[in-house]
């Protein structure tokens, strides 16, 4: 069995476990930030994935939201980047609209990406160079759009910040409309399936985007930080994701005019 | 058959027709505002509902988004308030996340509400005094929440407006998180099912909220305009919808401080 097939089975099993635990009580632990809830389900799901990867592939490295491998910086070999529950607030408040996300990298290069929309039982997946799939349905290449004819994904919260608000406000005003779903992984696959034309946010951790971006790449989507640079799986990033022509429009007409804001943002990202 | 049972069958049939038409080509007509797309599906769906209501209940009045009964102000008898496709942009760009909405009023009082999430095949419905249902599952009464522990529904676009932005910004900052789904009817039923704790917007037409609010009332949700007054089905309204304690918090801590902004908004609403 290839690592790809193994991961596909594992993420679905992990999702089935989540559904099973959801029928029991959900214990919620509050981290320092009230927006950063963590449940026993996050921990149990990450532990389940880590345990199974370790057992089958003892040489693979794992970076996970709930604490695994945060000191890893060595790109050699195979690295799994795992978000056990992306969209934790949705999980806690809605019991849906969350995903398990896994990105697998070989010597620092994308190998395969998985985003499992657990409650809808939809697995988005891609192996580099072999196209992307929604369950067993191949996803078409995404279409070029212009901002004024695009629905974009952006959280209202960013518009309340003084400098970031100044940067994002003209984008929201120029877009046809905006949406906020509360799960970065699902928002990235929404771009990959053409349901959103773009998704942007000033701060994402690698586990939030690793799986989704590998899927996105296979349908000709473009992902970068707000400076246009590559996304790193070893640190937090600013993120803009779109079809290539909209990505270029956003970079040239908007983000390039806010270099000092973005520089300041990047200085603070990993502190 | 009661009007309630008749409407329940009719809205599902209308949804089946929408799915049938979606398999053919969707012709898109652009209204004056590019954000206000209208499709032949909107028109065909409203016509289908109007035709069937007229045939069975020739004495009933109908107010519909696509042009029916906009001059009606007489509350006597039975009035249907119909949105054939709520979330037209989602319909056009996503082919999902839209709803058919019907509110039925008897002598100006709520009689029954229906919101049909077509692509997920979920019908939210309520007859006044008899509780609300998600398909055949009764919905529980919604729980009280405080803003800082609430996920609220609000479109990012409102935060880009000078006066409205000033009013909404502290609400978004105080909330646990914000979402924007792009269909008022689905956002109102998200409050009724407890998936959002509140939904607010400066401008909604009666057909956007009529069905959803009748459902919401049955689970103890509160709906008003931003001044705290009743929503009218004969004109555009500002809208805030929440569980009663959060509604009170929003009115007292936020909207009451912006009376002049809200007065100005209301003056412009129906022009």
TrEMBL record, chains A, B:
Keyword Repeat carried by entry: no
Keywords: Hydrolase, Magnesium, Metal-binding
Superkingdom of this protein's organism: Bacteria
Cross-referenced InterPro entries: Inositol_monoP_metal-BS, Inositol_monophosphatase-like
Hydrolase keyword on record: yes
Pfam hit, one: Inositol_P
PANTHER family: INOSITOL MONOPHOSPHATASE, INOSITOL-1-MONOPHOSPHATASE-RELATED
Name under which the protein is recorded: Inositol monophosphatase family protein
Organism in which the protein naturally occurs: Staphylococcus hsinchuensis
